[in-house]
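Amino acid ABC transporter amino acid-binding/permease structure dump, as promised
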Amino acid sequence: MKGKNKNWLMVVFACLLMLGVALPSMSVHAQESDPTFDAIKKKGEVVVGLSADYAPYEFHAQVDGEDTIVGFDISLAQKIADDMGVKLKIEELGFDALLGALKTGKIDLIISGMSPTEERLKEVDFSDPYLETTQKIIVRKDDLNKFKSVNDFDGVKVGAQKQTTQEALAKSELKGSNVVSLQKVPDIVLNLTNNKVDAAVLEGPIAEAYVQRDDSLAFANVAFADDHKETAIAMPKNAPELKAAVNKSIKEVKDQKLMDKYKKEANELMFQKDQNFFQKYYKYYVSGAGYTLFLAVIGVVFGAIVGGILALMKLGKVRVVRWIATAYIEYVRGTPLLVQIFIVYFGSGIIGIELSKVAAGCIALALNSGAYVAEIIRAGINAVNKGQMEAARSLGMNQRQAMQFIIFPQAIKNILPALGNEFVTVIKESSIVSVIGVSELIFQAGNVQGASFKPFLPYLIVSLIYFVMTFTLSRLLGVAERRMNTDA
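structure tokens r here:
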């Protein structure tokens, strides 16, 4: 009996020993696994996120008559994709939306002139640096003699791009300056040329491009103590295979001095001979206007459906249903549309639903419009004299029949004019979806701004297009309203 027990103990001990050897091996294997890299190889493409308003890193240009995103970041991205043996897919977003898109799996990499700051390293991982640059201060040429050291900026308005190394540098070294943080580099330059700010802190290649294109600008002879910046590629955390593949490509680029070639190609496209401005960029505006109208139509049509349901819920007799409708309407009307767009776009990725940028924009606009349309419909129904419902019920109609044949036909005359005004409002509000990269008018104006180095003209043209669309629609609504009143 004792012998059998000893045999069992030896078997158990042997099993535990084997398990102890196997577990570390399994743990190492688990740590080395890379679902992001595996997914890239499986789908056969790497999705690179960027903000294409940052020439010469990435910007829009006409190549063989076609609008193309170009720049030395694009050349690097293509090199990485080729080395991986997959296709390159570019996902264009606002710079502020890039990290969110990476963390929610919308994109695989960020190659957009981004620096690995301490704050960013807490959220994502970075490759080895592929570019090292210095920071420059540009000023109006007439003010060149005013700025000779970092101590000359006390009380001076200094422009810098929001959430960048340049913004941090301006705040830390230009003591006493008033830093004006803006979303896009072209907006900073526009503020500088229009005397809204007196200096701008830009990355070296960007500053050189603007000074070369605008004779009224010049480099301030001011040196920062810490003007060195490393640019790297952002990627999800715990992606060792992806990081190794990207670093291998970066090493080849450095060893073969390919970045000099990429920069030369980008500069040639950036400074290509100008055609007539409108001939060169009219397609951007046509495309942007089409997307704007599409977003507005979808937003109002589906918003009317959502609004109709909410209005009936709010007019209903069931208290819980009324409370749900009221809570939704108050929440949507009480929060910014920008926040709602981010919730729909990034939130869908978190719960495993893949929405395109356009789909996310349409859904956010429809849900937002629905809350306002609900109040329009409710007010239109309430405006009908209560005696109409009583008269219908006295004739033997039930609640549904009375609403269908008596109340709604009268309410519609109150609802349609306000619904038309909602359409005009949504046309203008659709501009906010540019933050997630939907190519509507404002987004396209930013692309033209970055490609043409003209900070003011693209937005002037966009304002005229918006005016034509809304003014025409307002006049048509006025005609329709007069005819309805005549018929009445």
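The first strand starts at residue 45 and ends at 50.
lmk if u need the other ones
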